[in-house]
Amino acid sequence: MFLQKTLKNKAVIKGVGLHKGIENTLSFCPAPANAGIHLVRTDLEGCPSVPVHVDHVKATSLATTLGTDRFVVSTVEHCLSTLAAFRIDNVYLELRGSEIPIGDGSAKVFMDEIRKAGTIEQSEPRKYLYITKPIYCGTEEKHAYVVPYNGLRVSCTIDFDHKMIGQQFVDVDINEQTFASELAGARTFGFVKDIETMREMGLAMGASLDNAIAISDDKIMNPGGLRFENEFVRHKAMDALGDLMTLGRPLMGHVVLFKAGHDLLNQLVQKILDSPECHQELELGAGLPVFENFDVPFSGRA
Ligand SMILES: [Zn+2]
User: Which of 8, 72, 112, 119 has minimal Cβ neighbours within 10 Å of its Cβ?
Assistant: First the structure.
C-alpha cells in the first residue's frame, strides 16, 4: 500500500510574481493526513483558504488562477506540478500576496526547496484516481485526453507557427527523477512582440530574462540560450502536470496533449470528474489492476 505524504519541514520561497511583479513569500507547510492541498492567503484577515480543486479555478488564460469570491491566487501551475511529481498529498501553501513567486520561470525553485524540506509518509493510504476508460476532450485540431496507464505519464505536442519553436514533442513517465531531469528546469516563455501589449494590460510586469525565455522573430534573447532544444514543450508538459492537480486526487493515467493549453486541461479535468464510469478510486498495493488495451484515436505526434 502507498501511504499519503506531506513535507517533513516547512519550505519557504520568496520572489516576484510573473504577471503582477510584486514580491511575495510562499511557504509549503506540512498538513495532516487526508487534509489535501490548500492555498492560504496569510496576508488577508482571517487567513482565508481554498482547496486546490477544479471547482475553484477562476481563470485559465496565460496562467491558472484559483480562488473564491474574496481572493485569488494566480500562477499556481509550476508549484503544483512539483507536488504532482513528488506525489505530495497534504500541504498548506501559505502565500503572502496574490501570485506565486515565479522563481527562474521553471519548477526548479519549488523542487529544490521541497527536496531540502524532505517528505514524510503518513498513516493513511493514498487513494488514487485510476483511469479505467479513455476520456477525450477537444477536436482533432487541438485536444487533451487520458487513457488507462499503470503510472502517471504525460505526452505533449505543441505546434507554433514560429521558426524558433515549430512542432515539438515530449513523452515522460513521471516520477521524482524524471521530473527533475526532464521537466522541472524548463522555463516559461513569451514573445518580445507581445510584451508591450501585455504590460499595458498589467500583465508580465515581473517578467525578465532571469525568469522567462524571450523570443524575438529570429532568436532567443536570453544570453545563455535554451536549457533543452525542446524546452518549450517540456515547459507545457510541466504546466499540464500542475493543472492536473485540480483533480483533487493523485492521477493514475496517461495524459496526451496536442496543442492543449490551460483552458483545455481545465476542461479535461472537469470531464474526468464528470465521468465516474471511466475511473475508480483505488488504494494501490501489491497488484496493480489490469485494464484492456485501447486504441489511441489521435496520435501524440501529428
Ligand atoms: Zn508555465
Answer: 8
Three cell numbers written together for 80: 503544483
What is the Å distance from ligand 1's center to 186 Cα? 9
pLDDT, tens only, 188-199: 999 999 988 999
Q: What is the CATH number of domain 128-282?
A: 3.30.1700.10
- For residues 81-104, give the mean pLDDT: 97
Architecture of domain 3-125: 2-Layer Sandwich (3.30)
Name the active-site residue from 38, 143, 254, 262: 262
Residue 254 catalytic?
Answer: no
